[in-house]
Amino acid sequence: MQLLASNKVFGGLHQRYSHQAESTQCEMTFAVYLPPQATAEQPVPLLYWLSGLTCSDENFMQKAGAFKVAAELGMAIVAPDTSPRGEGVADDPEGAYDLGLGAGFYINATQLPWAKHYQMYRYISEELPALLEQHFPVTQQRAIAGHSMGGHGALSIAFKNPERFSSVSAFSPICQPTTCPWGQKAFTAYLGSVQQAWQEHDSSLLIKRLTPEQHLPLLIDQGSDDSFLAEQLKSETLVDAAKQLNYAINFRMQQGYDHSYFFIASFIEDHLRFHYKYF
Amino acid sequence: MQLLASNKVFGGLHQRYSHQAESTQCEMTFAVYLPPQATAEQPVPLLYWLSGLTCSDENFMQKAGAFKVAAELGMAIVAPDTSPRGEGVADDPEGAYDLGLGAGFYINATQLPWAKHYQMYRYISEELPALLEQHFPVTQQRAIAGHSMGGHGALSIAFKNPERFSSVSAFSPICQPTTCPWGQKAFTAYLGSVQQAWQEHDSSLLIKRLTPEQHLPLLIDQGSDDSFLAEQLKSETLVDAAKQLNYAINFRMQQGYDHSYFFIASFIEDHLRFHYKYF
Questions:
Q1: How far apart are alpha carbons A29 and A85 in whole angstroms?
Q2: Which helix (H) or strand (E) element contains residue B273?
Q3: pLDDT tens-digit series, residues A114-128
Q4: Active-site residue A152, yes or no?
Q5: Distance, in angstroms, between B81 CA and closest chain A CA?
Q6: Who's near A93: CB < 8 A, 6+ residues apart?
Q7: Are B140 and B165 in contact (CB under 8 A)?
Q8: CB spacing of A266 vs B10 below 8 angstroms
Q9: Contact call for residues B225 and B260 (beta carbons, < 8 A)
Q10: Per-residue confidence band for A89, with pLDDT thresholds at 50, 70 and 90
């Protein structure tokens, strides 16, 4: 691991690291916030934050305003990158923002030219936690959250691994990628046209496989003025599925808010306190 | 005025506007935060935030994490751009980050090719306040703050116009531009080599002209690990001058903090509460 940057913030440390990842076969960058309480003798719980399309490890750390409360509670936060990167990593030939670099969709690609590096599901759910729990003062108490494509990532990874997390939350998540343009484009490219493979990463379907004992505490915030809501995010699909399952999720439609980090900053405190309660 | 963007945040509104400015003879962009309390019937006090080198109206608004407390207190914040911009606006031929675009230094240029558009002192101290107080729900209660080059701007504008502000604060300000490389380069270009013109914009000199009645409440935060401290910022010059004048400034050396917005975010709440106290 190589330390790229270190900044003191709210008494703790924001740090950026790069490392050679086995799963994605390239150098990956992540950022971590370590609150002042975190020491080798007293490790702290860790929130995984998965960002949306076009983001890197930097957006959440710079824009969410999460550190004050994380420092108060004593919780670490990690923000991984949203795709593999670097020379030799495939990208959309036209540089589309919703495919290739910055658009890994937190799945393991099976199709060429993506399969070699686009193994973000394995990176986020296995390799990165192992690395962090070995090298940083964090416990195995894990929560997961994300925004938009990263909200899809947080929900789908939590639903596939409910034993690994104590709670899950999302802002403006893509709730049914198998039926929205962003998801269909990415899944077709990365997974081919096999519907069964798609269903392995669709939160509105995955939720139905959970037993009542696997129902993690779940908080979702969605802006009512989010221009992607109707076509891409489709939060009603997840809300309806949860209702049928008697899964008591906390879905909040926030009046007048949009898809931006201004929305995330307004409610991130609620998410941190929510996760902290279940550690 | 043209509305470029509007985002709901912490119950208030973040908005970006552009307008044709008389002082700088070009289209200027600024961002404003209006807290939920602000209405035409109940205008609120306004904090001017002046940003540092390379910044636009966006950096503070996206990275400082100031809105929660501004919304709680009921204060508006405006973040102007740091220079004129657009076609025909002179820039450093080599694209230096510390001269030309993004580096207006909050002074009125007298030298070619800068004089036509680089009139940031007049824009910030006269034209923008008049515009804001006419078109937005803000009172004439004004405070001013800034970072680095913008810290220089806040201090020097407040010292030259103590009757216009109720308080002033800065993060990592350039305290003596007449003796540091950033200031000498910019002042030589914009003002020529006339030392008298330089002294009109050097806070460590301007402070000596103030009568005790003109000593505004003044808070400065400086990071001890700021790599620009010794060569460019020279905070001891201002601290020493204040001491000689019995000007009771609150200067805080914050151990381990650097020059970044992570530092600003860590202490912006203190600055907002400080200014609010004196409105």
A1: 9
A2: helix B261-278
A3: 999 999 999 999 999
A4: no
A5: 19
A6: none
A7: no
A8: yes
A9: no
A10: very high
Distance between first and last Cα of chain A:
28
Which tens digit of pLDDT belongs to each residue from A20-41? 999 999 999 999 999 999 998 9
Which tokens go with B193? 């080599």
Q: How many CA atoms lie within 13 A of B217 on its CB side?
A: 15
- Number of domain units in chain A: 1
Return the CATH number at A87.
3.40.50.1820
Across A124-152, b (16+ Cβ under 10 Å) vs e yields bbebbbebbeeebbbeebbbbbbbbbbbb
Sort strands A167-171 and A76-80 into parallel, antiparallel or unpaired. unpaired
Enumerate the H helices of chain A as residue ranges: 58-63, 67-73, 120-122, 128-135, 149-160, 181-191, 195-199, 203-206, 235-244, 261-278
In 3-state terms, what secondary structure has residue B56?
coil
Predicted local confidence at residue B26, as pLDDT: 98
Can you give the pLDDT at residue A119?
Answer: 98
Mean pLDDT of B227-234: 97
The residue-averaged pLDDT of B137-155 equals 98
Q: Are residues B228 and B148 in contact, defined by beta-carbon separation less than 8 angstroms?
A: yes
pLDDT band at A59 (very low <50, low <70, confident <90, very high): very high
Please state, in angstroms and as integers, the Cα–Cα distance from residue B254 to each residue in A252, A263, B219, following that order.
39, 30, 13
B105 is written with which tokens? 């230094």
What's the CA gap between B276 and B279, in Å, rounded?
A: 5
The residues near A224 (Cβ < 8 Å, ≥ 6 apart) are A253, A254, A255, A256, A257
Note down the domain range covering A133.
2-278
Q: Which member of A7, A225, A266 has the closest CB to residue B9?
A: A266
Chain-chain contact of A265 with B225 (C-beta, under 8 angstroms): no
pLDDT at residue number A75: 98
pLDDT at A227: 97
CB atoms within 10 A of CB A5: 13
* Cα-Cα-Cα-Cα dihedral sign, residues A36, A42, A45, A49: positive
Residue A100 DSSP label: B
The alpha carbon of residue A67 and the mean position of all alpha carbons in its chain are separated, in whole angstroms, by 18
| Phi/psi-derived region of residue A192, left when phi > 0, alpha when psi is between -120 and 50, beta in every other case | left
Residues forming beta bridges with residue B146, ordered by sequence position: B50, B170
- A220: nearest Cα among A167, A161, A157: A167
Fill in the DSSP letter of residue B180: S
Kindly state the helix (H) or strand (E) to which residue A16 belongs, with its residue range: strand A12-21
Average pLDDT of the segment spanning B183-195: 96
Contacts of A225 in chain B (CB under 8 A): 8
Identity of residue B226 = D
SS (H, E, C) B103-146: ECCCCECCCCCCCCCCEHHHHHHHHHHHHHHHHCCEEEEEEEEE
Rounded distance, CA B223 to CA B264, Å? 10
| Amino acid of residue B69 | V
| Chain A contact set for B68 (CB, 8 A) | 65, 265, 269
From chain A, pick out residues whose CB is under 8 angstroms from the CB of B223: 8
